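Two proteins were folded this term; both appear here.
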Amino acid sequence: QVQPVEFGGGQVQAGGSLRLSCVASPPTFSLYSIAWFRQAPGEEREFVAAISREGSKRKYSESVKGRFTISRDNHENTVILQMNSLKPEDTAVYSCAAKAGDPLLQRPSGDLNDYDYWGQGTQVTVSS
């Protein structure tokens, strides 16, 4: 069983950048696809980005494509979400989640119901 923990949230002005980290306990981290979701006040949780077990396949929501980049380092048990050109509408609690059972090289899911293990989340606030 893996327990994700998020780091790196904070407050930034529009146009700025933030880097979020999702760290999970070893030694089975590489067995999990990892995704980031976010939830703004009064809104439903929505998909942001996901990465396959070995890191070769990525999936992004249309709202962040071209601005956010997801990557992973299985030796460090870490997934990074680099967020550039941030907008006020990116303000939300960002959570990472892990999904077991995907074969290697499978494009990861963007459906939150597919993810088994969730972190507590980290707040990202973008001011205009």
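Next, the second protein.
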Amino acid sequence: QVQLVESGGGLAQAGGSLRLSCAASGRTFSSLAMGWFRQAPGKEREFVAAISRIGGSTYYADSVKGRFTISRDNAKNTLYLQINSLKPEDTAVYYCAARITYYSSAYYSGPAEYNYWGQGTQVTVSS
């Protein structure tokens, strides 16, 4: 069983930055492909970014490309999401997700492709 705990959310002003973290436990972190998703009130959960288990491959939703950076530190069992140039439309609960994979360069963008989810961290951006 994999446990995921997000942190780093909060209230920020438009144009500012936040860094979200996701601490993983229960399995060797380097065996997990990871992703970030978000869900705004009244909307479906949407893909934000994904990273392969070794970290060599990343993939972003078009809406966040150039502003968000996903990264991981396998020595610290932690996933990160750096969010720059925050916009009010970035307001959502952000979730990290994990999937066990044997493929070193694989990443996944569909919610159904992930087996484990964190509880989420709220990001609120004021204009």
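The chain has a mean pLDDT of 96. Residues 95 and 120 are 4 Å apart (CA to CA). These notes refer to the second protein only.
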